[in-house]
């Protein structure tokens, strides 16, 4: 901010300090005080791609001490006109509340509220090189249906049937029947996990199981 904004606007002799506002008036140069108000996260621009940097925006209260009040106001005006994207300094339109001046322990005076964008590059995680060609295999899918029964081949309604490793679930109806529209026909074959009446069984889906050839899944329950 000093070399990119303040001194190009006010001249190379401008004295710049960061800290609390001082009431002393310089005898030979204009003094600019930058008082940090707060630091907050800054949103990234829309459409940003890749590894985006971390962004913060720091707000500063800018006050001027010069030989007289006219010189102070002229210096503030020069800084306001010089702020912009080219300098990386943004003018904030917020009104300076009386409580802010009280917290700083100084009297109200002409000032600017500006913000500066701060960025830090993110460190990306190292990615190992792929040293072997990628091999893909085509695995056709197929519909699968089944019937869940208990002792005496009595249908069990409300049994939860899951395709292991996938977010596919179904419930058996009053006839104990369930169906999946599409189950991967991978090798090894997928497994159905059935939960019914406190019991759980795992059943592999063999190659003969289809919508027209339902699986018969028996749940080992006590007949009592």
Number of strands: 12
Residue runs with pLDDT of under 50 for 5 or more positions: none
End-to-end distance, in Å?
84 Å
N-to-C order of helices and strands: HEEEHEHEEEEEEEE
Q: What is the structure about, briefly put?
A:
The mean pLDDT is 85. By secondary structure, the protein is mainly β. The termini are far apart.
Describe this structure in words.
The chain has 224 residues and is mostly beta strands. Helix content is 13%, strand content 36%. It contains 3 helices and 12 strands; from the N terminus they run αβββαβαββββββββ. The strands form 3 sheets. The chain has a 5-stranded mixed sheet with strand order 1-2-3-5-4. It has a 4-stranded antiparallel sheet with strand order 8-7-10-11, with no helix packed on it.
Summarize the helices and strands and which ones pair or pack.
Layout: H1 2-10, E1 15-18, E2 31-41, E3 54-65, H2 69-82, E4 89-91, H3 98-104, E5 111-120, E6 141-149, E7 160-163, E8 169-171, E9 177-184, E10 191-196, E11 199-204, E12 215-218
Helix pairs in contact: 1-2
């Amino acid at each position: 901010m000093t070399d990119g904004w303040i001194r190009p606007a006010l001249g190379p002799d401008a004295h710049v300090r960061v800290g609390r506002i001082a009431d002393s008036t310089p005898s030979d140069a204009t003094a600019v005080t930058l008082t940090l108000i707060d630091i907050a996260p800054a949103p990234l621009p829309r459409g940003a791609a890749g590894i985006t940097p971390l962004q913060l925006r720091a707000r500063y209260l800018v006050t001027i001490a010069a030989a007289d009040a006219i010189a102070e106001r002229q210096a503030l005006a020069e800084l306001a006109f010089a702020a912009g994207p080219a300098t990386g300094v943004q003018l904030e339109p917020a009104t300076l509340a009386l409580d802010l001046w009280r917290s700083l322990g100084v009297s109200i005076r002409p000032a600017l509220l500006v913000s500066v964008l701060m960025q830090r590059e993110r460190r990306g995680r190292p990615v190992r090189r792929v040293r072997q060609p990628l091999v893909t295999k085509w695995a056709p899918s197929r519909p699968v249906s089944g019937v869940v029964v208990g002792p005496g081949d009595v249908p069990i309604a409300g049994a939860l049937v899951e395709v292991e490793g996938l977010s596919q679930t179904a419930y058996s109806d009053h006839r104990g029947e369930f169906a999946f529209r599409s189950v991967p026909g991978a090798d090894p074959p997928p497994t159905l996990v059935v939960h019914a009446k406190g019991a759980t069984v795992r059943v592999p889906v063999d190659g003969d199981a289809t919508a027209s050839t339902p699986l018969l899944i028996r749940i080992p329950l006590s007949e009592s």
